[in-house]
Amino acid sequence: MRILFWGTPEFGLPSLEAMRGAGHDIAGVVTNPDRPAGRGRRPRASPVKAWALEAGVPVLQPERPGEEGFLAAARRLRPDISVVAAYGRLLPPAALDLPPLGSLNVHASLLPALRGAAPINWAIIRGHRESGVSIQRMVAELDAGPVLGQTRIPIPAAMTAGELYAETAEAGGARLVTVLDDLASGRAVERAQDHARATWAPKLDRETARIDWSRPAAEVANRLRGCDPWPAAWTSLAAPAVLAGRTLQCFEPSVDAPGAEDGPRAGGAHAGSSRSGTVSGTAPGTAPGTAPGTVVRADPVRGLRVATGLGTIAIGAVKPAGRRRMSAAEWVRGLPDPKEVRFD
Questions:
Q1: CA 15: distance to chain centroid?
Q2: Is the pLDDT of residue 42 over 90?
Q3: Which uninterrupted H or E stretch holds 239?
Q4: 102: nearest Cα among 1, 11, 9
Q5: Distance separating alpha carbons of residues 165 and 141, to the nearest angstrom
Q6: What is the pLDDT of residue 124?
Q7: Residue 163: exposed, middle, or buried by beta-carbon count in 10 A (0-12, 13-18, 19+)?
Q8: Whole-structure pTM value
Q9: Nearest Cα to Cα of residue 11 among 27, 25, 26, 31
Q10: In which order are the strands placed within the sheet that holds 103-107?
Q11: Nearest alpha carbon to residue 244 among 147, 134, 145, 341
């Protein structure tokens, strides 16, 4: 098939490689215009554009995918079908219907669950035990079209959004090739979604990533993992005075087992927790009534442990504002008085 591919970040690269490896003709790629990036704010090509230039594939970069000039250029590429993988914009009907076989989307969830912009992050934040990828036919309503194929992906207890992103991208490429083969042979089956079961995964922003220490420890851990590496879960420092008001991004959480005095149980799962994120038990090693956000351990060897609304959580790595990511223990070693550390 001649394929017009729409994508911007690294997520689309395994799909491009899988289609090319299966013998499909990538007629062209559509990606977002180059945007300023880095300290010099120089325009930077998207990963999909970089791939296309290296592969000698035509590149289209419309400001708006409904522009008539762009649509005319896309028609001249004579695609049989469009494939979309994290393009980053909604496609108007004129773009969806441009190829004779319509448009497919590589969506990073098991639809109808987690429709929307950030399904990978929200699967982890909400404590799901599995996620996956769906190949769906695109319609005017967001992520609502029929599904042609799915692959399930388990979510281990310590998995981050970045790790799930990489697994989902690879699985999406493999499933996409199977669906394209089925379409070519007439074996494809399109299964309508049950719209009553749809859930949503809205775009993440800075406020979404703010850590709410009043939540149970397992929920806090899920948020840290679901925002790693981006947008990165963060908290504000209330003390020491020299750092008050500054922000600290937090990573690599482990939920302490009840009765643990010296650190978290290996594996990052609370002994009284379920994979859905609910926990039972009391905050180990802390006095009753310890306020959520209280740093109950700031040790130059063992790092940080913080009280939550239910239980405590160890933080394995942090990133202070304007500095690199480092181990929590290294950050503690640089503090004037670790005993004074408090989080808002």
A1: 17
A2: no
A3: strand 234-239
A4: 1
A5: 24
A6: 98
A7: middle
A8: 0.89
A9: 31
A10: 59-60, 25-30, 2-7, 81-85, 103-107, 130-137, 147-154
A11: 341
Q: Are 236 and 295 in contact (CB under 8 A)?
A: no
Give burial (CB, 10 Å; 0-12/13-18/19+) of 27.
buried
Going by pLDDT thresholds of 50, 70 and 90, the confidence category of residue 243 is: confident
Residue with tokens 């004129």: 94
Q: pLDDT tier at 257 (50, 70, 90 boundaries)? A: low
DSSP letters for 198-213: --B-PPP-TTTTB--T
Name beta bridge partners: 59.
Answer: 29
Residue type, 112: P
**Helices of type H across the chain:** 13-21, 47-55, 68-76, 93-96, 119-125, 161-185, 217-226, 328-333
Sign (positive or negative) of CA dihedral 267, 250, 168, 125: positive
CB 173 within 8 A of CB 86: no
Tokens of 83: 């494939």
In whole angstroms, give the CA distance from residue 262 to residue 258: 11
Q: Give the pair of three-digit tokens for residue 268.
A: 């990052």
3-class SS string, 259-292: CCCCCCCCCCCCCCCCCCCCCCCCCCCCCCCCCC
pLDDT tens, position by position, 141-178 = 999 999 999 999 999 999 999 999 999 999 999 999 99
List of domains in the chain: 2-197 (3.40.50.170), 217-343 (3.10.25.10)
pLDDT band with cut points at 50, 70 and 90 for residue 216: very high
